[in-house]
Design goal:
mainly alpha
Length: 191
Amino acid sequence: MSDSLRDPERLFQYEPYLRMLARVKHRQAYQAKVGASDIVQQSLLQAVQAIGDFRGSTEAELRGWLRQILARNIAHLDRDMHRDKRDVRRERSIEERMQKSSMRLEGWLAGGGPTPSQHAAVGEHVVQLAEAIERLPDGQRDAVRMHYLEGLKLSEVASELGKSTSAVAGLLHRGMKSLRSEFGEAKSAWG
């Protein structure tokens, strides 16, 4: 399995997962100049070039390595857009937020305390869930991402989106209904 993790072609299957995580930290101010897809493509190309540096042996370690590359690129973009010097604390903060979002995503899939065999299934389904979230209409996708992956309260999501809490509740309901129907009732422990 370790050799298949080092296959550069395989890295591109993580594009939806990384794009979803990039939206967690990608500031609105520079989305117009550099989209989340652009920063993800740059990160994946760097990962392909550096695949020999990857020292992990599990799917989870590969996702963590890709998150680090993405976080570093977002921190560099943040620095470049603000002409600040490199701030390692900001880079760590970005990476920590992405890791928390990834853990929430995996927690949805595990639905509690997974067994070792469930850990493997979770790894396989993380990318599928990220793809499904990315396919949601913009409002639903943003509400689901902010509430469930970033951990924002309903009122905070409403404030960020410029909507009422009841409108956000509707977006969340419809988004989760779509995700449940796509993944089946077996994974409906998500919320």
